[in-house]
Amino acid sequence: MAVKKDSGWAWMICIATFIVQTLETGTVKALGVMLPTLCQQFSTPTWVIGLGISLAPGFGAITSPLAGALSKRVSPRSTVMVFGLLAVIAMIIASVSTSVATLLTALLLTGFSIGAECVVISQMVIYFDEYYDTANAFAETGVAIGVMVMPPLTQLFLDTYGWRGSFLLLAGINLYFIVSGAMLRPVSTVNDDAHIGNIPESEYTPLMQRRSNNGCFLANVVYYLDLTLFTDASFLSLISIYISHGYCLTGWMIYLVPHSIDLGFEPYHASFIATAGGIGNLIACILYPFVAKTLSPSVLLYIASVMVAVSLAMDPVLSLFHSYIGLALLSIVFGFWRAMSKLSVMKVIKNVIDEDKMTNAVLWINVGYSVGSILSGFFSGWFFDLTGNYVLSFLTLSAISLLGICPQFILEIGNNCKRKSLSK
């Protein structure tokens, strides 16, 4: 019987995706706001704490394949709830840290939330077809909310409760990862809407879990991790795109507020420059379903990546004039085109990856994102310590945005040439 999509419990999955994207993006942005305070508290260079914050996605890269395998073996719901709880515990540990080593370890372990987020996001493809663009755009507004709300809120936490209290409050907010995990249900394969969302966990055995346990260990590893994805050139090009996404977004989220403070703006004013990026993201989410009907996902991806690169390259120019309004407007432009880029690449993933491999595809692609995040956390902070400003950091972010789409562009040209040669 055909899988029931685009209705009923599917919209609860959309809300769950909205929640986890709000939490994940907002938490990273919150840590960026806390960066100057943490550097001062532990008397460490900027790149050390910056690298520590970016190590969270790095650890998420390690745990993401495990999350994918557990989703097949157990269930997506249980996986998200457990991984979310582990991330919350890590933030509590961070709140009682007395040394840089303890803090960095705690920041590392918050990466469990990455695996939880990716498992939830992957469920969108299973639950949506006709309304995928609309549902995906709505869920992406969670990024906008996280970017807009968390910077000023975190600054308020710091001023009121200090950095230790701020970590505890972030831990409490991230408990909603567990709530989001509890919202995951198997797709209904019946016509009665009353059954949607009411299937007991004990009766939920994912289709891909129904496999003989008599196979060899290596075959099971290949199966549960979907390692055959790495034989697909299109999938590898998508990983390249996500490496650039990780580098650019993480660098922007961690260092925009410190960069603005370095230019002489007050912390509260600096945090609202980041909020402007969330406004751009929100506008993009509203417009994307309409734009997606006009432009193909690949074309929109190329345009968005170029515009992201332009907005990042313009930051050092406007910084020369110390223009608060100019930097805020530029942040809106960045947020708008970054959201367009992410939404279009998710549509590309949906078009080229089989549904039964989607969970692990999203998780493996997130490994690429995490690699970019780690590199950005280190190099962007190191460039500041080296030069005393963020000019080189933002120019590098701009260049990486362009380099990330090159493999996909070359692959598409090659495919078009093959099609033309076969048609002759």
Which terms summarize this structure?
mainly alpha, 79% helix
Structural description of this entry:
- This protein is mainly alpha-helical.
- The protein contains 15 helices and no strands.
- Helix 2 (46-73) runs parallel beside helix 4.
- The longest helix is centred in the middle third of the chain and has 42 residues, at 132-173.
- It starts with 9 loop residues before the first helix and ends with a helix.
- Residues 187-214 have low confidence and may be disordered.
Give a quick rundown of the structure.
The protein has 424 residues and is mainly α. It contains 15 helices and no strands.
Secondary structure elements and pairings:
Elements: H1 10-42, H2 46-73, H3 76-95, H4 100-109, H5 112-127, H6 132-173, H7 176-182, H8 217-225, H9 233-262, H10 267-291, H11 297-320, H12 324-352, H13 358-387, H14 391-404, H15 406-423
Helix pairs in contact: 1-2, 1-5, 1-6, 1-7, 1-9, 2-3, 2-4, 2-5, 2-13, 3-4, 3-5, 3-6, 3-7, 5-13, 6-10, 6-12, 9-10, 9-12, 9-13, 9-14, 9-15, 10-12, 11-12, 11-14, 13-14
| Major β-sheet annotation | none
Overall radius of gyration: 21 Å
Beta percentage is under 5%
How many strands appear in the DSSP assignment?
Answer: 0
Percent helix, as a range, is over 70%
Which structural category do the helix and sheet elements fall into? mainly alpha
- Could you name the ranges where pLDDT drops below 50 across 5 or more consecutive residues? 187-214
Separation, N- and C-terminal Cα atoms = 42 Å
